[in-house]
Records
---
Amino acid sequence: MISLADLQRRIDAGDLSPHAAIAQSLEAIGAQDRTIGAFVCRAEHVHAASAGPLCGIAVGIKDIMDTVDFPTEMGSPIYRGFRPRGDAAVVMMLKQAGASIIGKTTTTAFASVDPTPTLNPRNHGHTPGGSSSGSAAAVAAGMIPLALGTQTGGSVIRPASFCGVAAIKPSYRLLPTVGVKCYSWTLDTVGLFAAGVDDVARGLAAMTGRPELLLPPSIPTPRIGVVTQDFAGRPEAAGGEALRIATKAAERAGASVRALALPEIIAEAWQAHSVIQEFEAHQALAWEYRENYEAMAPLLRARLDESRGLTPAAYDEAMGVASRARHALAKVFEEVDVLLTLSAPGAAPQGLGSTGDARYNRLWTLMGVPCVNVPAHIADGGLPVGVQVIARYGADAAALTAARFVEGALMRQ
Amino acid sequence: MISLADLQRRIDAGDLSPHAAIAQSLEAIGAQDRTIGAFVCRAEHVHAASAGPLCGIAVGIKDIMDTVDFPTEMGSPIYRGFRPRGDAAVVMMLKQAGASIIGKTTTTAFASVDPTPTLNPRNHGHTPGGSSSGSAAAVAAGMIPLALGTQTGGSVIRPASFCGVAAIKPSYRLLPTVGVKCYSWTLDTVGLFAAGVDDVARGLAAMTGRPELLLPPSIPTPRIGVVTQDFAGRPEAAGGEALRIATKAAERAGASVRALALPEIIAEAWQAHSVIQEFEAHQALAWEYRENYEAMAPLLRARLDESRGLTPAAYDEAMGVASRARHALAKVFEEVDVLLTLSAPGAAPQGLGSTGDARYNRLWTLMGVPCVNVPAHIADGGLPVGVQVIARYGADAAALTAARFVEGALMRQ
């Protein structure tokens, strides 16, 4: 993989020109993307900025985010050839930081669950996960050092786990969703994929102009609460193994680690997620669903068909549960700095029939708390499995720092 | 003005066809809009639905909301001729309820403060207010029974006050902003304009599928707290007079009315509003401001120039104040059902140089609470002045019902 931190150091030292850094990505894409299929479209000639913390950094943008320089097709024929008038807010943040937008990455239709043809770079017989399929795969394949995705259920953390890359789903609205196709305004969250935790932190700090998100020179030892999310069912063997390995590594590295039971309202919130997601999707995708029914991707359409009967009362009840659960979760963080839990039930499923299961992700999206994926285990078939490090709402720096601690502990094993 | 409730009754009774109801609006627009200038563009032939609670209701849509049937130009040459691929969520809600979209109404550029050429139908020498200038004016002139606008500072309640129409800015995200041009995601709120409170309630109930928003057959007598928002400065004579008249009328009608002082954190939140609004606008309008600087409307551009130095730390601090103020405001509503306060400092300013002052609106937008404008007074020059009735977050039905009480009390004077 291409390390963003490494590129920054070499560019800062004058050992690599921003132009050469971009050229390296263009070459890697040329060599690999015919097989992997991570890009929907890409630039032939890319301008490298001469300044900014991300100059020389080639970035892939999930194709539900508006771009003036590329069509924005939402993974759906309904948007074939669509040209937005402006760039999404996060695309402008990247440009202002000096990054070069190198292309648009594949997305399931409207960031839902219908698989794209993208292959998992770790094992071509498996899905890279979704909905941010192309962004996770492009970073994992070493084509680009940074990519943007979005998560409404588990669309950032899950593909990162399946592809063996670092990723952050930041606190709700730390990154704006302006110009990003909406599925659920209460849930949709823009996230970043990169080779490692330091790379992700550098990307997020540069985009937001928040240097406090950069990792500190010395990583403090966190108090970690391990949660198994039993309300979401049991993991597969590989998922459980990843969590055991990460827990042991953190303990060995000196962290205070203990198992935590979450309050009952948290399990209710896990249930409430899908009510909120689908109720809002019926409004957010009303034009697509009602005026373009035949052209809708089949799994998404079936999901919307099934949830047509959701009432405003059910939605209001679910939003109330979510609000109470957020307060309860804030109290949990009085006892620990971060939570450590499963990123996915197991390794990437075989074939391209499914993008996998978001059941260990959706609660945290609804809670709006920052989640960082750290690769923890390699299962059969060379397939990576990650764990996620989760901090309280707004404590993105704490999530990144603790994730770096876990990443370092796993490397020293 | 055209009463939505009256149209509904006549259509239900078979005394008026939906087609004839729409034709009435087309004719009124043809007769008046050359003078008033409320519409950016409008349909030549309008289809009337045969069913749905809003069948036969012609609706004007503020031109920052995406429509497939009309260009969406945001009040700015930067979006000249722009055709979105789909309809905004609120436009689809109207269509699903049977309404007919009759045209797009004028908006200040990106719903900010640069005036449109629209005249105030009550006195052509005055502004109709903004940013939802055309929506307020089109309803006030009797061209259409219902129009959509948005409020980030005071862009629904203020023009409603200046034009003498009813309007609601509902609770934050009761109506989705998907497909509505963003200025500030924490503040932007879609609202409705109609002739009276009952008309507004019917529109909102039909759009949301929430019959509980319809007025009850018998209007209960509310406990009212009168607030003068001293932190926002003193009103003009006409503004103060409107509040006095409404207060007296409510008292005479039997309401429990008392003056309320708001907690100190509320005044801080009033200050915090502009920090949040402009910090987010720099992200939401980054493409427009940075890539189209010369084409930006001058007052908006100057506002963005001035606020360039806003830091993430200042924004985080302002968001923290807003959160504490929302909790404090919720406590205020333990003592009263609704608040009654100024909708604007006074009557509509003369000329078209300014859309007026949002200083009595912005706090409530930031609090996310439902606000209903009720016309209360006619000042010199035949210019209306309104008051706003405000309920706790989520209590839109209570806000509408109490506003209807105040409206009825004012009519009986």
---
Amino acid sequence: MTDRSIKFEDLPEEYYALGGRGLTSTIVAKEVPPTCHPLGPSNKVVLAPGLVTGTKAPSSGRISVGGKSPLTGGIKEANAGTSFGQKVARLRIAAIVVEGKAEDNDKYLLKINKDGAELLNANKWLGKGLYEAYKDLYNEFGKNVGICGVGIAAELLSANSGLCFNDIDGLPSRYAGRGGLGAVMYSRGLKFIIVDDTDAPGVEIKNEELFNQGIRKLREALTTHDVTKPGGALNSYGTDVLINIINEAGGLPQKNFSAGQSDQAAMVSGEKKAEEIKKRGGAGQRPHACHPGCVIQCSEVWVDPNGENPVGVLEYESTWALGPNCGIYDLDIIGELNRQCNDLGLDTIECGDTIAVAMEGGVLDFGDGQKAIELLEEVRNKTPLGRIIANGTEYTARAYGVWRVPTVKGQGIPAYDPRAIKGIGVTYATTPMGADHTAGYCIATEIMGVGGTADPRDVKKSDLSRNLQLATAAVDASGYCLFIAFAILDIPSGLEGVVESINGVYGTDLKVEDVAKIGQQILDTELNFNKAAGFTKAHDRLPEFMVLEPLPPTNEVFNVSEEELDKVF
Amino acid sequence: MTDRSIKFEDLPEEYYALGGRGLTSTIVAKEVPPTCHPLGPSNKVVLAPGLVTGTKAPSSGRISVGGKSPLTGGIKEANAGTSFGQKVARLRIAAIVVEGKAEDNDKYLLKINKDGAELLNANKWLGKGLYEAYKDLYNEFGKNVGICGVGIAAELLSANSGLCFNDIDGLPSRYAGRGGLGAVMYSRGLKFIIVDDTDAPGVEIKNEELFNQGIRKLREALTTHDVTKPGGALNSYGTDVLINIINEAGGLPQKNFSAGQSDQAAMVSGEKKAEEIKKRGGAGQRPHACHPGCVIQCSEVWVDPNGENPVGVLEYESTWALGPNCGIYDLDIIGELNRQCNDLGLDTIECGDTIAVAMEGGVLDFGDGQKAIELLEEVRNKTPLGRIIANGTEYTARAYGVWRVPTVKGQGIPAYDPRAIKGIGVTYATTPMGADHTAGYCIATEIMGVGGTADPRDVKKSDLSRNLQLATAAVDASGYCLFIAFAILDIPSGLEGVVESINGVYGTDLKVEDVAKIGQQILDTELNFNKAAGFTKAHDRLPEFMVLEPLPPTNEVFNVSEEELDKVF
């Protein structure tokens, strides 16, 4: 971006058969100095579709985004399911690397199609919400494009600004949201990436037969497993099915992590949401996929009471963050807050944690949904208060002197209280990503009985967390949705199918046993980056208040020992 | 403070002949968990007069304040010269430890005299500026008290809130300012400490003869050395004498460290200031000491054009921070900004760095003194913008997306650009305190030719910085002002005198050679705390922009190697 030039480069041989998180973390670790300033000239944003993204493999439409995070100060990978990644892959682009900084004040749009790429001026979209901007962009560039963009939060260069991708209806609702990489992209001078895969060559598949065999096995597993099958939990209620389940377990954080259960939780449950969506009709009719070719289809679309103005999906973590965590139990308010987040380019989890901390700090009352919506208007208006909010949980806590700060490595803790469910706490503490439930989703085993069972209160969780972190890193490289893990952890042929599908595309000879090794390689790369950036075991800790303060109703504290945490890596 | 109780405890034997920084850092390291939240229940504030504070030893009125810093996240010691420390010592109190957190919303005043101590309600002073509050407090508690207080910045629990002590005229101008310990004290529930030494027993001196011999030698050195003698540099012009000297060296940072020299610097020089003070008359007549018994007397008092409304001293670093670093070259505006800092409880260096970063971020223009004054009114009014500013340089940079952030370990870099003068940069990078010129003042040797000479641009400065850091830690424990170092580095009998004076008070048998050992012990304690808090060599670095960006007019970058930095400790 320094001289606004575009280069197509052959993929170095060493990067062959790396994809998604495997490729973004490798490039970031190689090219970004670990101690650089995240918004300075040395940082980069890397976008890489997964290994099988763009093929007809089921539920494989993920794209990873990497860079040094302004939120955590460490390496970051965040990924999203979107046709954008599929289109990039079909153009046979392994990764887009955005580097340098434009010296002028103009902002740019990168347009990519089969003929090449160009940078166009994007100034006219500055200050616009993304719902309107994406509509404009589809009008200008046609219906066959994928869009990646950053919003007003990134224009503020704020640490809670995500990269937004189009959903299947063209809405700005699919986010590589965590860790503030939107600000890194915007600080290069880049506002949008438009990709058009018309007449694209498609993903090269070295061994069609093996590939087809693999995806058959995987599809079979996905359509059989209770969690992922048609009419199963995710397909029927979306991820929000977890509200009642986690509430029942006493691990659904209320009002800035001051309790783990509420009798009002059912008002924002997946069941309630499905019922409302059905009643309201219109754009919200379920089931809905986040990208073409998904067989799980958990992305039901939330709409207003008239069945209009679709928001996109309300995920469990978003519903929790903007709902119970703020003392809000009204799906329409939560929907509106989620719409604001999508429109502004804010990660919903971080934003919900932030609003709750602002509530604890006295900026507004717990439960005051209207004030919460107004708070996000401050971001839109780029006021000082908006700048505070857009910089996330820890930042907002400091502005208002709040010491109960639910973060690890500066990133807001998601929707599962680690005092009631210890394994997920081990993941929050030890993943190089900062508090991230997706990095090693112990909930699967501790609560859902997937991949075995484990008592949520058992404090020996280093092995469980490590194993899941390794598997997750590999899945995040594959381009498959992490939700395939529910099926392949329980159905061995599904896992075989995944490996065969990758071997089919790349002509490689990976074994099932190699999955953990691939994961370990990726994690080693990330952990080494963080170590060089200044992270130590002292950063692999949960916030002090979770160690000191019992969580009603279980009245558990986070009592996993530091030794157990340090055994993970 | 949890139950608002006060205990007098005998000094444990292991703490005997520890004082000042030696005692604060030892207690903090022993009693505060390194990974605790600085504003949470586990942090403490420790105030300890130096080893000879309260005696008639010349220039020995320092008091140290310690705790875990909300600004750096590491251990912090900040000290000030004030009669407050002398009074505490004369009551034979080795340290005041403020611990726990009041659960109620009331704020308290700790009153100490020869009969004991009590906690009084301090709510009536909340929201008041400290100039007015100190006047009230002297009216209420009498002229013979020393006052320690925290201001509106601490009421915001902000990371740039210092502990303020009375000067010799009772003004709130003597600060243990750096690192945000004001917020730590206020978060315990404590707003003021009033100490009255009427009929105090005084400091016990074990060997009067040796003590008297020691202070004679020291006084002789102080009154002989060019820097410290009556009519010498400090006595004639105050610390501000450095403006012209550092500007000449190309190391006086201008406009957020974008140049190292300005032809306007002379307008705010010590010479110019002395001339103005003389012309204006009134309260500002020089020379002025910061505490009774100082022979250096560098604290000339700044007044308004009518010779009224005394601010207190304008130190070199304050003048620079609020002046040239903001593109401001008007002593009256700088004086007003310094008054605001004193009144609000903000550290001047951090505040000047903050305003300059806000200027770079477009909040106001470089050079706009009026707007700068208004910006500090935002702190007084507790607005969101005020909360941003009160949280310091790095925090403000993040609010406005500024990547040229002059901080180390989160603390703003003081008045000497390390690109033009490398040794001070080695100190900024490696001291456990975050960027702190006083921690190992290489300027003495590099610019002033004290303790030998060194080429400012020579990059081999690890030995110089280490030696000065060790000596400084020992001086900070002694209770002597750091400025005695100018004399005792050049005059061996002065150093002997210092050691004899300590042996005289404590009946100890320290040798001159032990000074470095004492310093090493203190630094080891601090470095170990920081290591446990999560600091690594990656934090011992200057900001990226100083490595990348040449500084006019020398066009030097900070080119001390990481190996050289890592050789310090």
